[in-house]
Write a structure and sequence with these properties.
The complex is a heterodimer of chains A (about 850) and B (about 100). Chain A is mainly alpha-helical. Chain A contains 43 helices and no strands. Helix content of chain A is about 65%, strand content about 0%. Classes of the chains: A mainly alpha (about 850), B mainly alpha (about 100). Chains A and B meet through α8, α9, α12, α13 and α15 of A and α4 and α5 of B.
Chain lengths: ~850, ~100
């Protein structure tokens, strides 16, 4: 505009005026496109006044603007001119298409002769619209050959067919026709209303809303009300929400009364989640919702989703218990069986969401605040009230994880359920684990895992004869089970070792013979261990030549003097044979890593603890950091574990470095080893290494390693970190991590800029081994027994441990429970929040 | 595996037992035979596999309730009776000025 004005000002001729008028026309069209019709009309009048010579040129623009206001006459007059150029005709027809909101106006317009194609087409549209909105019509009636596909009324043809499909309940076909309507055409203004009526979410004008309500049978109006209610609840606008609730219930009663009860249930639960006042909701929806199984399930899920406070977990369990009663009563499933067991296991899963150290606090809080669900039964029909919990006789069994598993196993005695129960019980207490295993054996006598558990439990308490009998029972059940096959060798070695410890060589003799006859004792390096036991045996008999022969056999099998010395020392220590074997020494010449790897792998295989002498550490580290692979992956792994057991973190770190460099197939193990070597302040690296190890173990389907990683994470990592690491890592992320770890050849040094409170000097290490060294004193407590402590308390501390004692003292003295690690919101949902 | 409720796929009620589930499955397989509608058949098959095992069936039953779902989702699949209104209500919408 500015350029055109400047040009016309300078030249002042006809051509420059034409250019300026063109610019004005473009400006007017632009205003019209933005629905600024009044502004467009004012500008048009101004231009017409200033440039009277351009009046003819402005006629089309003027007509289009009038048509937008509903006056088609001027536009149709232009179309009546037979000399109208094709280009202009096309422009005018587009204007008609976009403005023809009422085809009857075209049909009745005198500006066109009655036989004009556009008037004929408009007449056809008017008749068809009358027919299709008044009753069912045949498809042939909507063929409408009078309307060509280039006609400005072609979008109406598509819309008429869409309306016919809508009334014929052919929603997919209806959508197809709606998609064919030109979006800028006047007929397209009906599209959102029709879409809303076939169940799509649409924003509607008041007229469209009225149409949807009138023609759509009220469902669209109900949908719109529910959308508004959702929005009000999300915005926590209680007044509006209550209004919309009332509207929704009234509409639902009219439109689909079958849905009313369910709608009330969902509204009450949603309102509870949004914090709306319960009594006001009950009034708004015209009384309490039905408390059947459907309701209790929905409510329980709502409590599960309320994650800001762990006390909602026992409340969720209490609601699931109500669901159980009603679901059985309503015959959703039988009173016992896998379905009920699955419900109990689901409750148990919920408990696992609570960090272990908060469980007792949550139970305490629940017992203090929970008042039951009796209030929810007010105003319910008799069949629902029949299941109301009795006052003061409520069984809160669901707060005990052990009871949940017990009930699950009673309802559905299958191996999976017993295994879960056993895993929980043995973590708590060995004897409890044995009791669960006994229950498992009684329920499923052919299952081998409980027998193996009992055998291992007996082995741990040195009840070797009992363990041996259980092993024989396991052999009868499944002699090919690899665990069972390994157990016979291990138990025989334990029995022989015990007899050798007690110097009962005659009793050890048959056991040694049995070991030598076992085929599994001939596999791998195991003959070296058998020979080492024989060496102890002959030494105790004071038979030096036989002992020397046995010793030579150990060296021959292992192919290394150092490895043989390690094994002989370990066996001698296990048999409490004093003064016979000196520890191996670094020679500097013979390579150590491979030999020690073999010895450690043998020890791991047979359950013999191998100790790596500190004197060998430097040579081992030199070998491991050299340029070539020094031992096979299995040996390296065993070496790393032995180093970690002996708290030789530097050596374990060097082993993990070598493993990550040369043993790609065992990256999972070496990443886990690396995670355990790192100091506590390098928690980010620890977390990442453990996460990558876990991901690789999962891919390699290595449940044993996965279990070990899980236990370590639970013990050592902060629970928030554990959640982060549950996210699966991609192969690229793992490769990048391994690359970064490979570039860290030595243990990290503590950075100077470590934040306050992270230095080891300030905060004593809280890891299990350091705590054990400080006699189990928790963080913040002085080490050792405080001076002046009464002897009774001293005895209690020895018996219960300082943490338990602190907790008990805090309860007795009323000082509250020890400070919780995580700050929680103070708001706790109680039965006041229960919805109606 | 998607998160869709297998009961909705087979169009059975929450409390439906083994027989009802099997009948619904056979009905759906007839409706979507594997050679003509392989993807739909796959959905039906997955839903049936989920529901035929009582443990998985119960697990999905417990998790099927979604208290956070929009309330309007309750109307999904419902069809109300459509009313013939005559052309005026329709023309009132098409005559509206563009905004």
């Amino acid at each position: 505009m500015d350029i055109a004005k400047a040009v016309h000002k300078r030249l002042g001729n006809a051509a420059s005026e034409e250019l300026l008028v063109d610019a004005y026309v473009a400006r007017i069209c632009s205003l019209a496109e933005r629905s600024l019709d009044a502004e467009a009309r004012t500008l048009l009048e101004l231009v017409q006044g200033r440039h009277p010579s351009a009046r003819d040129r402005l006629r089309e623009v003027s007509a289009t603007l009038k048509a937008r206001g509903g006056d088609m006459q001027a536009l149709l007059e232009l179309l009546a001119d037979p000399s109208l150029p094709a280009e202009k005709r096309a422009g005018i027809e587009t204007g008609i298409r976009d403005a023809a909101g009422d085809p009857a106006r075209i049909w009745r317009c005198d500006a066109l002769p009655p036989e004009h194609a556009l008037r004929v087409a408009a007449g056809a549209v008017v008749r068809a619209l009358e027919a299709v909105t008044s009753g069912p019509v045949a498809a042939e009636l909507l063929a409408l050959p009078e309307i060509s596909r280039h006609s400005p009324l072609a979008p109406w043809k598509m819309m008429l067919r869409a309306i016919q499909a809508f009334y014929g309940n052919e929603d997919a076909l209806c959508e197809k026709y709606l998609a064919a309507v030109e979006p800028s055409a006047a007929a397209a203004r009906l599209v959102p209303a029709v879409r809303a009526m076939i169940g799509r979410k649409q924003k509607l004008t008041p007229a469209a809303e009225a149409l949807a309500k009138q023609a759509g049978g009220g469902l669209a109006a109900l949908r719109a009300t529910l959308v508004a209610l959702d929005q009000a609840l999300d915005k926590k606008n209680q007044t509006l929400a209550l209004q919309e609730m009332g509207k929704a219930v009234t509409l639902c009663q009219e439109v689909c009364p079958d849905l009313l009860e369910r709608l009330k249930q969902h509204i009450s639960v949603r309102a509870m989640m949004a914090g709306t006042k319960v009594d006001r909701v009950a009034v708004a929806v015209g009384g309490p919702s039905l408390k059947n199984a459907w309701f209790w399930r929905l409510l329980a899920r709502a409590y599960e989703e309320t994650q800001h406070d762990p006390v909602t977990i026992p409340i969720a369990c209490s609601v699931w218990e109500e669901f159980r009663k009603h679901a059985v009563h309503e015959k959703w499933f039988p009173a016992t069986g896998p379905e009920i067991a699955t419900l109990y296991l689901h409750m148990a899963d919920l408990w696992r969401r609570i960090p272990e150290d908060e469980t007792e606090y949550v139970k305490h809080k629940f017992a203090a605040t929970f008042r039951g669900h009796r209030d929810s039964y007010a105003g319910q029909p008799p069949e629902i009230r029949a299941l109301m919990p009795e006052a003061g006789r409520q069984d809160h069994y669901y707060v005990h994880l052990d009871t949940l598993f017990e009930r699950a196993c009673e309802a559905d005695p299958c191996a999976e359920n017993f295994q879960q129960w056993l895993n929980l019980a043995k973590e708590e207490d060995r004897r409890r684990g044995d009791l669960v295993a006994d229950r498992w054996v009684a329920a499923l006598p052919q299952d081998i895992p409980p027998v193996l558990h009992l055998m291992q439990s007996a082995e741990k308490t040195n009840a070797l004869q009992k363990a041996f009998k259980l092993m024989e029972k396991a052999e009868r059940l499944d002699g090919l089970n690899p665990e069972v096959r390994k157990a016979r060798l291990r138990l025989l070695i334990s029995l022989a070792t015990r007899h050798l410890q007690q110097n009962k060589t005659r009793l050890a003799e048959p056991e040694l013979r049995q070991i030598e006859a076992l085929p599994q004792a001939q596999q791998g390096d195991r003959p070296a261990l058998v020979a080492a036991l024989r060496w102890v045996y002959w030494t105790l008999w004071h038979a030096p030549s036989e002992a020397d022969a046995a010793r030579a056999a150990v060296v021959r099998v292992l192919g290394s003097e150092v490895a043989a010395q390690i094994i002989l020392k370990a066996v001698a220590d296990a048999c409490k044979l004093k003064g016979e074997v000196a520890g191996p020494k670094a020679t500097g010449a013979a390579p150590l890593a491979a030999a020690l790897g073999r010895a450690c792998a043998l020890g791991e295989d047979t359950g013999l603890p191998i100790e790596i002498p500190r004197a060998l550490s430097n040579q081992l580290k030199r070998e491991l950091s050299g340029g070539d692979p020094v031992a096979d992956a299995a040996g390296l792994g065993a070496l790393g574990e032995a180093a970690l057991r002996g708290r030789n973190v530097g050596l374990a770190y060097a082993v993990s470095a070598a493993g990550l460099k040369y043993a790609q197939e065992r990256w999972a193990e070496f990443l886990f080893l690396r995670a355990r070597c790192l100091p506590a302040w390098a928690e980010e690296r620890q977390t990442l290494c453990a996460a990558a190890a876990s991901e690789l173990a999962r891919r390699q389907r290595n449940p044993d390693l996965l279990g070990r990683i899980g236990k370590w994470r639970e013990k050592e990592l902060d629970w928030l970190e554990r959640n982060d690491t549950d996210v699966a890592m991609t192969t690229q992320q793992i490769n990048d991590l391994v690359q970064r770890e490979r570039e860290q050849p030595g243990l990290p040094a503590m950075p100077d800029d470590m934040p306050d409170g992270m230095e080891d000097d300030d905060v004593p290490c809280d890891c299990p081994s350091c705590r054990a060294e400080r006699r189990g004193m928790p963080r913040g407590m002085p080490t050792g027994i405080p001076p002046g402590m009464p002897p009774v308390l001293e005895r209690l501390m020895e018996e219960l441990g300082p943490e338990e004692l602190m907790r008990a003292m805090a309860q007795i003295l009323g000082g509250g429970m020890p400070k919780r690690r995580r700050r929680r919101s103070s708001r706790i949902l109680d039965d006041k929040d229960l919805p109606f | 595996m998607t998160n869709e409720d297998p009961r909705q796929v087979l169009e059975v009620e929450a409390e439906a037992g083994d027989e009802e589930i099997r009948a619904a499955y056979l009905r759906k397989v007839k409706e979507y035979p594997p050679d003509r509608s392989p993807r739909e058949f796959e959905r039906v098959r997955d839903a049936y596999e989920m529901l035929r095992d009582p443990r998985r069936r119960t697990r999905s039953l417990l998790l099927a309730a979604d208290p956070k779902q929009p309330l309007a989702a309750l109307l999904d699949g419902l069809k109300s009776k459509r009313q013939f209104t005559g052309p005026d209500a329709w023309l009132a919408v098409s005559r509206e000025k563009k905004t």
